[in-house]
Protein 1
Amino acid sequence: MSSDKERIQELRKQLYYHNYRYYVLDDPEISDSEYDRLMRELETLEKKHPDWVTPDSPTQRVGGQPLKAFDPVEHTLPMLSLDNSMNEDEIREFTERVQRNLAKSDIEYVCEPKLDGLAVELVYENGSLTTASTRGDGTTGENITQNVRTINSVPLRLLENEHAVPSRLEVRGEVILYLEDFEKLNKQREKNGESAFANPRNAAAGSLRQLDPSVTASRPLDIFCYGAGQVNGIEFDTQMNFLQTLKSMGLKINPYIRLCNGIQDIKDYHAEIMKKRDDLPYEIDGIVVKVNDTALQEQLGVKTKSPRWAMAYKFPARQETTQIKDIIVQVGRTGALTPVAVMQPVNIGGVEVSRASLHNQDEIDRKDVRIGDRVIVQRAGDVIPEVVKVIKSKRTGDETPFKLPDTCPVCGSKAVRIEGEAAKRCINLSCPAQVKERIYHFASKAAMDIDGLGDKIVDQLVDRNLVSDAADLYDLSRKDLESLDRLAEKSAENLYNAIQDSKNRPLNRVLYALGIRFVGEHVARAAG
Ligand code: IVH
């Protein structure tokens, strides 16, 4: 009997450790099947001795009955918010204010990514997770313990290390949903006729506010810890030291945290993380700058809603709301009809956006996009703007549904959709739109690189029947080119020479320029 008890303890310890290796460090030491074997052995022993099952046992992650409502939880210390800096001047003013208030010039800061998720507080009592709550109004949140327990990177029990187990550890962190999982979840929801989440943050929030914990368990949430509430039984003198302590206890912290000395370091960090933004698998919306020394933090103190020792330094927003004025149809190189939303122009991260591809009819139907709809649009890095979601609550009833036409809007030929394909295509290979697109592509930089043969010139050449395919370009005379509008004699001469010069392009470029389906730059290089 007593050896069962010892074995249970040993198994739990191993499972805590391997859970940490897998979900927190992303660096497992044993195979999944070995992990499963340990888990099954523990389950068998706990079944034999149900009285010995404890809530922090690794077998008890997902469980419990659906709730009717969430109970309120009062935070021991208020969960504060952050003041935002939108530009260099504002963050510089913050560092100057800190220096002035402390009458000290060399101040260390910890810079962290500002994760765009949902703030939660975890409470560990004598090493075991007892409560998890949302931020709520900062004073009182909601008890979401059952749901947070399903997040694999949240330890149910802290790892034992050189530190004594704290009698109470309140730790704050951000629960996030990875972009990839967010997209999968939205596709699934739209398939089921449910409305999509506008962004991963809303999806994470929706997932944590499920009354049935098995729904939360089906969403692969993660957490990064970054702050303290009330802590009894361990000491730390800096934010960095605190974060390292959390890590050694098995809690997950973000890998991009950095110590910075002064404004230049902070600016460099901001620029660096902004560059990384598009490559990260989760959303961040800025950086957070915190005075490292906890004694100095205390000296600076807090305002009603935010501390004086920390400041967010935001990135430009990537989503805005606007209205769809019209949906037009563009005809591509392969004849595909692409519906494009024409929107009330809106500035997203410094770039004015007025058009977004709606891809195809299925996308329009899936998102139920109508002319007149208010929508959330998104622009990320170099990515083409997209309509993320219709704000259906803003509908007035005057919106018009859209269907792609059965004829090509450019040449009037039939447009058909071949089974198994998403696109509807104009079947006329001589359709002027297709011809123009093929020639734009042919002349483009990565293809034949014909300097001066821009879209406007191609349009004229095709519209005047001087050219009906790329080969015709090489029959054009200087006179033909001089006859075009807005092309001076000298430019016509240059263009003529550029066309002749392109005859020297290597085979791989020619292959790519022909625009054969499935022959991109890479395949063309391999073939040529
Ligand atoms: S510290 C007293 N650190 O941003 C400091 N917050 O706008 C309070 N957030 O409610 C928060 N990443 O949800 C801190 N590395 C980070 C953060 C972070 C994201 C969120 C958090 C907070 C909000 C404030």
Note: DSSP finds 17 helices and 20 strands in the chain.
Protein 2
Amino acid sequence: MSDTTSNQMWGGRFAAGPDAIMEAINASIGFDKRLAAQDIAGSRAHAAMLAATGIVKASDAEAMREGLLTVLSEIEAGEFEFSAALEDIHMNVEARLKTLIGDAAGRLHTGRSRNDQVATDFRLWVRDQLDAGEEQLLALLRALLVQAEAGADWVMPGFTHLQTAQPVTWGHHMMAYVEMFGRDLSRLRDARARMNESPLGAAALAGTGFPIDREMTAEALGFDRPMANSLDAVSDRDFALEFLSVASISAMHLSRFAEELVIWSSAQFRFVTLSDRFSTGSSIMPQKKNPDAAELIRAKIGRIFGANVALMTVMKGLPLAYSKDMQEDKEQVFDAADNWLLSLAAMTGMVGDMSANRASLEAAASSGFSTATDLADWLVREAGLPFRDAHHVTGTLVALAEKKGCDLPDLSLSDMQGVHESITEGVFDVLGVHNSVASRTSYGGTAPAQVRAQIARWKERLG
Ligand code: ARG
């Protein structure tokens, strides 16, 4: 059909076609063609149900099924001609079906509307992204566990305010991210369980008088059950928002880790070496090896969280039920999903390939008075000082070491006794970083024994 006549799907009451600008603002086919496979799956389930309930003849349903499969293969082969005049994926598919199978195509839309159709398609698409995200998170968790296990007892500085705080183990640091991405995984699974209900059959907003079987279509599409309220089914996009929330929080975790990798791979730190496969060079400075993947992961949170804010804003003032505003739900979710999954894959690749520099980690762990707290704790335990006094004495010793340009273990016993007479030779045992980490045996602490117990727990969980 030509673009100047009225729309072949809904044009009955229209004498003229839309203005070019109207078509430009109205058409979503430019992006919702990504829902083609889901749209055709939904239509196939609907067609089979229409036949099973006797709403259409079995021969018509069979024609629909075959026609839909043909449309799908045309789209997959890149042979399908999408038309902006047909607005969106739903009408593009149906129009092509009509060309292929004739009048039977016109019966497909019995007992449904584009409103429940798009809600179904989009749910199926988001569900696929959650499933892909689950796989990616599992791969990342496994890569982190390998790193943690290799360096369960390697010491490194732990930081607060990015200032050396107390020694920790490399394994402990890796396992902190395992906990974070593990919670992302659990959030993702919660979201999936909640969203897995079928809107199909809610029709335009009120349900339908045709004797449809919503259980049947729900089951065919892998949903746990049909949604219980037709107004809700066509109106809400909270499933997409939950997906974006899961992705945003996880992208925030990715971004923090990426930031650490950028710092750690610098010449000043040398904590890790990133592989050539996940680094780039500079076109002018021959010595450079840049952590671009980490930097890009650090930046991706912007668009992912932006999508979350954008969709929340689209939805926040809409009266029930469907409004065309909701067509604006897709592009940003597509973009966020693509970039989140890519970030997860890039992080998994980087973690899998990177090597931690054990010697640099240990050297850094031993500097910056990282065992000052161990010294204060020793004064409490062995010399009976109240913690506040021990803190003060230790501070004086740190100042003394700073003045002498050395670290705490380099002070002589007489230097120490000059600050507090009850200090004995035994103090040197706790000033070493290995003793320090080994002593932090509280549940969840950095002692290698604790870290290994957590690694074992996670390995069992992931199977
Ligand atoms: N392209 C539309 C969307 O994405 C499909 C639903 C249209 N429904 C309607 N009542 N105009 O939201």
Note: The chain is about 60% helix and 5% strand.
